[in-house]
Backbone:
């Protein structure tokens, strides 16, 4: 198919430079190459941006969010425990490492399961991207 297009003098010079750099024989070959190469380059750029986000930005945001939630949960738990201690008139501290209450042990086990679940999901996302 033949198509007439109009190029500025500057664009014609650039096209000539590309043609020479690439060792192409015609302007048509150069334009065709640039069109195809541009599409491939855009796809490669999109993949590179996604990988960069996954490697650097998303984990940082996840850590920031997790830290914020952990801090909020800690404050709530301290207030709840302080209230319980006042209500029970507790006089002694029993270390969790020494004698964990069954509820605390259950909670710790649930946390381990949750961490394992999120690690599995993360590994699946990483493997899917490869």
Residues:
């Amino acid at each position: 198919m033949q198509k007439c297009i109009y190029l500025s003098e500057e664009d014609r010079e650039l096209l000539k430079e590309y043609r020479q750099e690439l060792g192409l024989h015609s302007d048509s070959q150069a334009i065709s190459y640039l069109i195809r190469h541009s599409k491939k380059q855009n796809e490669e750029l999109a993949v590179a941006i996604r990988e960069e986000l996954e490697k650097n930005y998303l984990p940082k945001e996840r850590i920031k969010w997790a830290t914020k939630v952990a801090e909020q949960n800690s404050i709530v738990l301290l207030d709840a425990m302080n209230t319980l201690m006042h209500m029970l008139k507790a006089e002694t501290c029993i270390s969790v490492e020494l004698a964990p209450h069954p509820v605390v042990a259950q909670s710790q086990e649930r946390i381990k399961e949750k961490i394992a679940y999120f690690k599995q999901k993360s590994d699946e996302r990483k493997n899917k991207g490869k």
